[in-house]
Design brief:
homodimer, about 130 residues, alpha+beta, 2,3-Dihydroxybiphenyl 1,2-Dioxygenase, domain 1, eight-stranded mixed β-sheet, about 40% strand
């Protein structure tokens, strides 16, 4: 398993609409979708940039993962998602190498992708996600 | 100005060689260069992934920017770098839109790129960098 590219960068923000304004008006990117991911208690605004995406994440619940992240650390990068061809195999492979997983099995993320998080204590402080569309 | 792609993600790490081992042995990426950037008081290990790069950053000085970041926040994503075609114009444009800049003029970063940082108080909590090779 070698990730093919950075699928997206997940960024925790306090206010989705204020942040969208910055990414659109200042950086010139275009938000092509706003989606609620109930499972993760977030609303996400998605921008394409090259082969990658930026996902702004606003919590829908102060006690959800993004709500807690904002409370502890403020706004900022929440996770990096790597595109892999076969997520089941990728998870099996990194688990065999001693990586702790947040998700033992893939679940559905934004845009119907199959996603799973690796635990930051195994990844030198960065919350990492694998993504695949199969 | 619209950034063309994510040029790199800069990740602060405590120990470059331990982190390189994770990115190579677990994620399967290949470190193709280790470079010291004296100006920023870091040694950086660079990996290609798709059209983007990952730059692991280890401080060469406890009081340098990465040393202070690690002290305050621990390991994690330090900045996102966007590739732009013309960095001078990009800086002029965002400054005119009210963005505070860390660097008024481009300076040399890793791999001889022209780089400049935007201030995170203008960018909703994420330290952002523009990069261009011209």
């Amino acid at each position: 398993m070698i990730p093919t590219h950075i699928e997206h960068i997940g960024i925790a923000v306090k206010n989705l609409h204020e942040s969208i304004r910055y990414y659109e008006d200042v950086l010139g990117l275009k938000c092509y979708k706003i989606e609620e991911v109930k499972d993760q208690k977030v609303r996400t605004a998605i921008f394409k940039i090259g082969e990658s995406k930026i996902e702004l994440l606003e919590t829908t619940d102060p006690d959800g993962p993004i709500g807690r992240f904002i409370k502890d650390k403020g706004e900022g990068v929440h996770h990096i998602a790597f595109a892999v061809n076969n997520i089941q195999e990728a998870l099996k492979e990194v688990r065999a190498k001693g990586v702790f997983l947040v998700d033992d099995k893939p679940r559905k993320g934004a845009e119907e992708l199959n996603i799973a998080f690796l635990h930051p204590r195994s990844t030198h402080g960065v919350l990492m996600e694998f993504c695949s569309d199969k």
